[in-house]
Amino acid sequence: MNKNINQIGYCGLYCPGCYKMKVSEAAKSLKKELEKAETKGAFFKDNSKLNTRLDNLIELRCTNFCRQGGGKYLCEIRECCLKKGLKGCWECGDFEVCENLKEQFVENIRKIRN
């Protein structure tokens, strides 16, 4: 496994590659560019709603990854792995038929196992 295990969720998703991280970073960049434009004299009509929405998107960023307590509060996948003493679903022989896993997770788990 090439990636740091602490950055891989129990479900097999790579936390830094999560859409929440990407959207958060994009919103942060956009907000910074808009602030630069305003200081150069660009005028935006009442951008407080836009700033609020961008702030909400920026807050999507997880401060901790799954293994550090971040992600979904009551994650069935994390709970199952912890209960079974597994590093992740890729160590489970039943992951192919697990009802907790969506297909996107199963594909990642197959890649990790290989």
Question: Can you put this structure into words, describing what you see?
Answer:
The protein has 114 residues and is an all-alpha fold. The chain has two domains: 62 residues, no CATH class; 43 residues, no CATH class. Helix content is 46%, strand content 0%. The chain has four helices and no strands. The longest helix has 21 residues. The protein is elongated, with a radius of gyration of 19 Å. The termini are close together. The mean pLDDT is 85.
Key structural traits:
114 residues, mainly alpha, 0% strand
Radius of gyration: 19 Å
Oligomer: single chain
Unreliable parts = none
Percent of residues in helices comes to: 40-55%
Largest sheet: none
Q: Work out the helix count.
A: 4
Strand content: under 5%
**Gap from first CA to last CA:** 9 Å
Please tell me what the overall shape is.
elongated
**Count the strands?**
0
The secondary-structure class comes to: mainly alpha
Summarize the structure.
The chain has four helices and no strands.
Topology at a glance:
Elements: H1 19-39, H2 48-58, H3 76-84, H4 103-113
Helix pairs in contact: 1-2
